[in-house]
Design goal:
Elements lengths: L2 E2 L10 H13 L9 H21 L6 E4 L2 H13 L7 E5 L4 H12 L3 E5 L9 H7 L4 E5 L13 H10 L3 E5 L18 E5 L10 E5 L25 H35 L7 E2 L10 E5 L8 H10 L2 E2 L1 E2 L2 E3 L2 E3 L2 H5 L4 H4 L3 E4 L6 H18 L9
Parallel strand pairs: 1-11, 3-4, 3-5, 5-6, 6-7
Antiparallel strand pairs: 2-8, 7-8, 9-10, 10-15, 12-15, 13-14
Helix pairs in contact: 1-7, 2-7, 3-4, 7-11
Bound molecules: pyridoxal-5'-phosphate.
Subunit structure: Homodimer.
Protein name: cysteine desulfurase
GO molecular function: cysteine desulfurase activity; iron-sulfur cluster binding; metal ion binding
Amino acid sequence: MQIYLDYSATTPPRPEVIALMQATLQAEWGNPSSLHQWGNRAATVLERSRLQIAALLNASPDSLVFTAGGTEADNLAILGVAQSYRQPQHLIISSVEHSAIAVPASQLEARGWQVSRLPVSRTGQVGPADLKQALRDNTTLVSIIYGQSEVGTLQPIAELGAIAQAHGALFHTDAVQVAGRLPIDVQQLPVDLLSVSSHKIYGPQGAGALYIKPGVSLTPLLGGGGQEFGLRSGTQALPNIAGFGLAAELAAQEMPAETLRLMHLRNRLFSLLADVPELAVTGDRRERLPHHVSFCLPHTEGLSGKTLVRQMNLAGIGISAGSACHSGKLSPSPVLQAMGYRDRAALTGIRLTLGRRTTAADIDWTAMVLKQVLARSLPAKFVAPV
Ligand SMILES: Cc1ncc(COP(=O)(O)O)c(C=O)c1O
């Protein structure tokens, strides 16, 4: 039995998406910027995708800029705003951002920007009061991740965005894990910029988009032909973008039922594992991505998240670990550390993320295998009977 439970890392492209991408590659290979019929047909494909993604976010199509993925959308948001200023200013992010935000923020810091990293609660949430306190006269941008990929916590984005905007700062959110899984309406949410990625919603890797509220101005990161309203030069990757558009349309259609189904399966997995005494849920239990299950082993020696991932892989089950391995040495997850976990616990984070192909039988089997793996690896006192 092979069970993939790493849908936050990437999702298998839908068959309809693959078929459309193949057809696009074969028939619509024109350059969307060309003025002849081949170009016009490609431009039609491009704009249809823009409409489909706009519909997922309730955005106007001309507020979306296609990028090569979520990472580029995040970089464009942070660096594109920053480069609109001659002098370094103040940026606020959270201490649990994806590296696609944390790294450009550090780059700005090296260039003289002030960067505040907001603390989070034990469940990974940013407190609105902490944001209020961190705002300065020269705060130009606040960027807070919407759904945390490692621990699943959802942030109170409506409240945080309203605080930032009331102060006169721009507000960006990385919604890569949320788009297609929970409804997003950029007309209702107080956001100026919002990042999404294709391969988290059953589209292909290598496509993403940045929503830019009309009136917000960014400096492009790439110099070139001025595609994407002058904000992202380079000929668009049409097959990827076409696949992204269709994936967005299908995600929007299936979302209400699929979100509920995933929440049930997620809760089933949490309850099946509830009798393992040393498995502690990480992230917020209620304000949580619908497909996301995560744990750590706070009081155990010698067992890392990576080891568990390898052992589960041997049993045919794909999950992921939060800690990273640098030059053969394990380092604790910075996200769990920011949430107040000690280094030893922050080495043991694991994540199981569910998706369209996940069934109740997969969940039951996974819970049983995980308990067996833990029973083999942990002292007997820790593990409940399988
Ligand atoms: C929250 C978050 N932001 C950004 C990214 C990067 O997206 P992409 O892989 O499309 O560059 C990811 C991917 O793991 C993510 O989970």
